[in-house]
Amino acid sequence: MDPRAKAILPQCRQLIGQADHRPAACDGKQLYPKQDHRWYAEQQQAFEDAGCHLLGDYHFVGSTPTASDQMRCFIRALLTPDGLAGIAVYHTKPPLWQKLLLLLFTGQWRLSKVRECQSFFSDGTSVTTTIVAPSSLLDTPPHESRLFVPPQTSVADQLEAHRRHVEDWCSRSAGRTPRRMESLEELYTAEFNLQRVTQGFRKKHGGMTVPEIARMANCSKADAEIIQADLIVALQAG
Question: At what angle do helices 37-49 and 155-171 cross, to 10 degrees?
Answer without folding.
Answer: 60
